[in-house]
Amino acid sequence: MDGIHDLGGKEGFGPIEVDEEHVAFRYIWEGREWALSRCARAPHISIDWWRHCRELIQAEDYLNRPYFDSWAQTDLSTYINADILSIEEIKTGKADNSSTKNLPVPVKLSLEYLRKNHRENAIKFNNPERSEPSIKINQSVLTNRNGHSGHTRLPQYARGRHGVIHKYHGAHIFPDLSAKGIKTYQNLYSVAFEAAELWPEANGRRDRIFLDLWESYLIEVN
Predict the structure, then answer these.
(1) Structure pTM?
(2) What number of CA atoms fall less than 13 Å from residue 124's CA on the CB side?
């Protein structure tokens, strides 16, 4: 999807603050939103569907809302779509107990649960039955030039660019189809790009950028 969220390599949005004090949450409500997003997501709301919904936020909203505020906006929209909450309940802040909803299983929020939940979620996207890579290590590849509607993990700044296969990660859930509710696996590679290949002004520098990209994003180059 070509949306306002895909800001990598774009200019005109001001400097990136790298020296500001790092804190996980600046306000209490941000920590609560993070916890709700981690624990209250229904099984049929995949991370890829969630990301797709966040990418649908209008540019004015996306650029001006605080980070976790846009998380809340995305969570609420997916809850409404999944019939977990209604717009009226969100507006009033009161539950409508007379209706039947697809409520997720309640959990007790605790630091131990959040750590366990985070670890488990982090390893659920690969296929335990590892497939053989179709593209070899050190093979030169060209990324797809054109995007498509819907969610994708191929950023704009890396489209139509030459890179080299650095590592093979096995087969992982393909996010482009996962966002549509289709669970399928595809080979995932770490691709190395010379900085100047992505940004011409970096010509002469020795930096390299590594991106994890799915096989259908790549074309082998002889």
Answers:
(1) 0.82
(2) 11
- Residues 6+ positions from 186 with CB-CB distance below 8 Å: 171, 172, 174, 214, 215, 216
Q: Give 13: exposed, middle or buried? Use CB within 10 Å, 0-12, 13-18, 19+.
A: exposed
Average pLDDT taken over every residue of the chain: 85
What are the chain's domains? 28-121 (1.10.472), 140-220 (2.30.30.50)
Identity at 177, one-letter amino acid code? L
186-214 pLDDT, tens digit each: 999 999 999 999 998 899 999 999 999 99
List strands edge to edge, sheet with 140-143. Answer: 208-214, 185-194, 162-173, 140-143, 218-220
Burial class (CB in 10 A: 0-12, 13-18, 19+), 87: exposed
In whole angstroms, give the CA distance from residue 88 to residue 167.
49
For 214, how many CA atoms within 13 A lie in the half-sphere containing its CB?
Answer: 18
